Every structure is written in structure tokens, then in C-alpha cells.
């Protein structure tokens, strides 16, 4: 790898012609002819490892976002909260994600990546501080989870885009994989360490969050040294800014059909699968493992996300179709949409196993189900990011990344919806309906991959 890489110069507007006053203006006291010259920005010099500090911020935010998940059983036992309440805590997290995902990306496109991601990293630590001291009251938990979601939304939309820009000169698939790997590793390790501390460590409602605060403390300082890839633009009116933000969230016209038929049916299943694996399943089979319920829930979470990490190279290969480095194979793999189809096929298998285990209630089958759902999650997240990165231009990359993650995280509301419906429907019936929905979405993705081709919009 070369010693340094150079980012291409930011796109400039076409130079305006020289403005010359008409002859009629040449009267006593009139101005002389004026020539306007375009302003040239200096290129940004990048070191090969510049993306690592951003990856650390994504890792820490993912840690903070998912450290709560294996603690659901702890909050039920020690805090006395109902199943609906602890699933609602997950819902508060998703509510916080939405503004973080939708606003942070477009704002960073115009105000710079660094200040937005620094603010998100600080917010992640503040959220853990709130959860440290609010475990025995529902409202601080809601507030902490809301702030956590906002911070994760910033990290995912801004961090993914910044990693891609800092990885300039490398394979685009590698940049997407770096972003997905960092966030998934944070999700998995955060859940694993938090679950171990809650099961065997001191102060189970405090120590998991204290570890995250210590982990995050130095990262904002590291981010201040990362090169800025989106320099701040001159500000306009509030109305102009809102209009620009809306433009950044709009899918480019050439890509809209593929977005509707391929990305949209697949995206919610990414985190929907994660919710089934480590929010619904442990509560269904927890009575079978007795006092080991918290450790078992932690194990399912780590297994799900660990499988998601392990399959990400497979997702990249499916997306590119790379065989022996042939460019034609890469184009074929992208055109047929093998990665989204594979993601939904594995997702269908996991949903069907989850529905079957709602009847059998086997801890062992639950582990197999978690692995299948984790594989579907890993393929879906990477292939979705690659699809979005192809559709977006440099001016709206973070905005469209935020839109994609918002759709993906909508699936994380699935456990809350199921808990709310459980008074009227049994879990076997509801999970069978979930599997049927996965089958329908698989059909849509297969159809969409056949009738559309990846399109890079003109910018």
C-alpha cells in the first residue's frame, strides 16, 4: 500500500465566465471590468490508517448500543419490569436512532464529518452515564436508551461514510466491510462483556456501563486528528438548509426502482433477525436454563453477531461475484443481486427455525436459529451498504446511508410488536407469520434483482 493516498479534489461548480461591464457603463466614476476566478481547494492527504480512529468510534458506539440487550432478563428479575416494558426499552432505542440516522448524515455532508461524529461519541458516553444511575426507574432508562440510539445513528451514518472516504483508493467493498465489521464487533463484544459482568461481576446494573464509559473516553480526542473529508460549506438560510437535507435523503432517480425492489424489502430484516435471535428467543426458552438465563442470553447475542462478522467476507464475494479476479464476473455478481437474495434466503431459514422453536422451546435449537439469523444479518448489512454506496454520490452518501440504516433498524421494533400482540396471539402463530413475511420479501428481492441493474447516478 502506498505511503499516502490523495483524495480527489472536492467537486467544483463550473467556472463562471468573466463578468465584464457593458460599454455603457464606462462613464466617469464607473467600475473597471471585473473578472471572477473560481476558488480552488487543496486536496486532502490521507495516511493508510486514517480510517482506524473512525472505526474505533463506530466500535464504541456499537458497544454502547448493544450492551443493554443481554441485560433484558436482569432488568426483569432485579428491576421488576414486565416483558413488554423491557421490549419497550428497545423501542426507545430505535426512536432515538431515527433522528440520528436521518439528520446526522446530511448535516455532516455540509458541516463536516468530524464535529458530528465527535458529538455522537460524547453522546454515547453520556447515555451510559445516565443508565449507570437510573436502573431502578423506567424514565432514566428510556432517556438513556433514547440518547444511545441517537449516538449509534450518528456513528452508523456518518462513520460508515467517513470510513469509505478515508479508504479512498481501495476496493469499495473493503470500505463497506470495514464499516460493517467495526459496528458488528462493537455490538457483539459490548453485549458479551456486559452480560458477563451482569451475571458474575459486582454491581450488575452499573459495571457494564462503567466499562463503556472508560472505553469511549479517549476516542473524541483521536477523532480530532483524523483528516476532514467534507469541509464545511458556507451557511445559507434555514429554509435552504432544510431543502438541502431533504435532497440528501432522496434516492437518486436512476436507482429508485432497484431501491424499492431490492433494498427496501431486505433492509428491515437485518436487525429484525438480530431482534428475533437475542431479544425474543432468550425470553421464550429462558425457563429451560434456570439461573443461567442471563449467561445464555449473552451467549445467543455473541453467537448471532459473531456469525454475522464471520460471513461478511462471503457477503462481499456474493456481491462482487469475484472469481479469479475476473472483472466480468464482478459485474455479473452485482447485476444478478446474489448477495441480497442469499441474505433473504438465509433469513427465511432462520425465521422458520424460530417459529418451529416457539413450539419445541429447545435451547439447542435456539442456538442453531441464532447462528442462521446472524448469517442472514451479516450478509444483509454488507450487501445493503454496497448497494447504497453505488447509488449515492459524494454529496449525499451519508444521507442515503442514514436512510438505509433507518430502514434496517426498523426491524428492531419487531420484538416490541410481538410482545404487544402476545395478549391476543401466541408466539408460534406470530413467528409463523414472520416467516411467511420473510418468504414474501425473498420473492420481491428475487424479482427485483432480475428486472433491475445497479445504476450509478450521474452527479
State the helicity in percent bands: over 70%
Number of strands: 2
Q: In angstroms, what separates the terminal alpha carbons?
A: 29 Å
Kindly state the mean pLDDT as a whole number?
80
Taking strands numbered 1, 2, ... along the chain, how are they ordered across the largest sheet? Answer: 1-2
Discrete helix count: 18
Radius of gyration: 24 Å
The shape is globular
Bin the strand percentage. under 5%
Residue windows where pLDDT falls under 50 for at least 5 positions: 1-43, 323-335
Q: Structural class, from helix and strand content?
A: mainly alpha
Biggest sheet details: 2 strands, antiparallel
What string gives the helices and strands in order? EEHHHHHHHHHHHHHHHHHH
